Amino acid sequence: MDALMEPTLYTIKGMCILDNDGNRILAKYYDKNVFPTVKEQRAYEKNLFNKTHRADAEIIMLDGLTCVYKSNVDLFFYVMGSTQENELILLSVLNCLYDTIAMILKKNVEKRAVLENLDIVMLAFDEICDGGIILDADPSSVMKRVDLRNDDIPIGEQTVAQVLQSAKEQLKWSLLK
Amino acid sequence: MSSFKRDNKEEDDGGNPWQNLEKTSVLQETRMFNETPVNARKCTHILTKILYLLNQGEVLGTREATECFFAMTKLFQSKDVVMRRMVYLGIKELSPIADDVIIVTSSLTKDMTGKEDLYRAPAIRALCSITDSTMLQAVERYMKQCIVDRNAPVSSGALVSSLHLASTAGEVVKRWANEAQEALNSDNIMVQYHGLGLLYHIRKADRLALTKLVYKLTHQNLRSPYATCFLIRIACKIMEEEDASGNAIEESPLFNFVECSLRNKSEMVVYEAAHAMVNLKRTKPRELSTAVSILQLFCGSSKATLRFAAVRTMNKVAMLHPPAVNVCNLDLEGLIADSNRSVATLAITTLLKTGAESSVER
Fold first, then answer.
1. What are phi and psi of A26, to 5 degrees?
2. Minimal CA–CA distance to B275: which of B304, B316, B308?
3. pLDDT (0 to 100) of residue B7
4. Is the overall model pTM greater than 0.95, yes or no?
5. Domains and CATH numbers, chain A
6. Is residue B308 a contact partner of residue A87, using CB atoms and an 8 Å limit?
7. Nearest Cα to B169, choosing from B127, B130, B206, B133?
8. Which of B44, B83, B206, B270 has the maximum number of C-beta atoms within 10 A of its C-beta?
9. CB contact residues (below 8 A), chain B span 138-177, against chain A
10. By the CB < 8 Å criterion, does A7 face chain B?
11. How far is B3 from B12, CA to CA, in rounded Å?
């Protein structure tokens, strides 16, 4: 019975990013009962990837979990929850994960860019979900807390073109927010 | 020849800079953490490597983890924001494996009570990952302050951490009900959600207090859709218990609240309410048809997730009350050829329960 399920904030069972061979780029699992060891996680990822990498279908039920997903170029984003869970809540988390990463990478959502900014992507994971509880699902507010990089080259040593470029970027993003 | 060249280039492009990391050599690199002044950029890179290895499933022994953990504590000298955040992540990842992790308590307490908001929220969460019930009493005062902090991430961080701690230090956390109650009035949607979550956890053993809380909140129009979904679930649980004990009130205000939520402006809440009404035993046919007509609207959505959610719930209705779903047969037929296979499968099984064979064949 759905209705008698104990209300809980522990909504997310796992989140992961896989590449287009199904290899794990980053993954977090929050329920020791569902995924006791890395072996089960890997097996699930493999299964999930096989079922989803062709069909761009947004949602799938697999092995007793509801999984919403999204892909771009060479990346697959997944958010998993119990089958009893409100699918739209899971979707809001997936959208937040994807949009945050798209903002961090300045729209180049692809494997190479994720790997180059792995530290920031890890922080984004941490700010979206804490131990299975949704911490924040608003991409711009997550973004504010994770994108803390300051450009390394001091302003005096940048070329005029670089300064213009970064100013343009900043203007663009402040308008988009 | 040209294809060979391209292959080569592709490999360069898709190359994973983290791929060939070796555990022992990465752990050796942590020696760098002892250097003063700290080279934030290099150390962040090494921290990322460690976290990446752990994320890939690499297992560290207790000694390795402890050494790494202690090396990491040296990094508190530097003020680099990204590195500090990575240190917090490292603390959380290593604290279950390493020994004597309480050594960072004072550093974290300092960060959590300091001025820098960017440190405070994640410091609280890291602190709670190394704290046990005895130590929690030492930081209890700070936790209470953080729960009612004006900065939303700080407040959310404290509330969520309290919930995690409630399983091991339930008695201490129970004393924070007043603070959780205050968080419930927050303008921030996540703080409100986490506040309700914690308050429910504290009150759930006390039937009377819980019922009172829920009755009060149903009149209040929570801003947060997440909190509203959660409230619907609590309301349903209370109603089911009332039904089971036999003293159900015909016209329950809780049921009215769920029904009103069908007109909420958030899709998430509307679906939660429809789903709840379908599952409640007390729902009468007239009310059921309202819920079903909402689901029917969702069937035409462009979002696969919404169509999936709707058909899955209809499938459940069809098991108990096939006639209620009959009105949607046409919509369901439209979903048989849905691009999402799960949606199509659910539509077919639902039709098998409600419609005649002819509708599936069509």
1. -150, 140
2. B316
3. 44
4. no
5. 12-147 (3.30.450.60)
6. yes
7. B133
8. B83
9. 152-153, 156-157, 160-161, 163-164
10. yes
11. 14
